[in-house]
Amino acid sequence: MNKSDLLFYDAYEEFYRMAAGSPAFQAFCKDAFGEDFSQDGFSDIAQINRILEYIPTGGDVHILDIGCGNGKMLGYLQQKTGACIHGFDYSGEAIKTAEVLFTDRADFREGVIGEVDYEENSFDVITSMDTMYFAKDMSAFVAQVKKWLKKEGVFFVGYQEGDVMPRTESAETTVLAQALQQNGLPYEVTDITRQTYELLQKKREAALAHEKEFLEEQQKDWFDLLLFQTDCATENYEEFAGQMARYLFMARKE
Asked: Domains of the chain by range and CATH?
């Protein structure tokens, strides 16, 4: 497989090189999201903290993050819970950083959704924050996730429509909801579109606040991209919500 043919692959290789060496971007993430997890999307600290309530306490607990990037979100969850952390990502740059940053009870792999595999009943919690879009067959990949989960294990997903995935009528009409239903995974879903709109406004403010640092680092292209990504938050909320939606799904293996 030529990885350059995969969705956003070359851009993410460059992104993780930048994220590893840019104090301006790291400061931007802390201001925009509450913590620096090298976010390119919408995983602010409030969303990540919701995962904590589903992570068992005590015992041999294992968490898998699908599209883990450089592992910073997993590192945060491990710090809070003491769990063993596992992650895979198609970006070699991201995985190299993860392996350097997190070495205690941690397993990181370079791999592509649909090709990476784990043993059955391996994980208490599996997370996917803005990465399910990369599955060529979402229903088939959800079947894999279900296999990897322990009984009563939780699949926690941040899922957005209106960019990579087309906007549909509601959470129930999303490709993800259909895939969960097809695989017999009961779920709860929370609509956080309004919070996402407000987060985009905060991202824009944070980017502008760090414009000088980005330019001093000769990172104008990344600064310009942050403004482009948040242009939609300059519309009124009704226009935004007509084009975009964001949901948090929590599915549990029975």
From this structure: 3-21+28-197+233-252 (3.40.50.150)
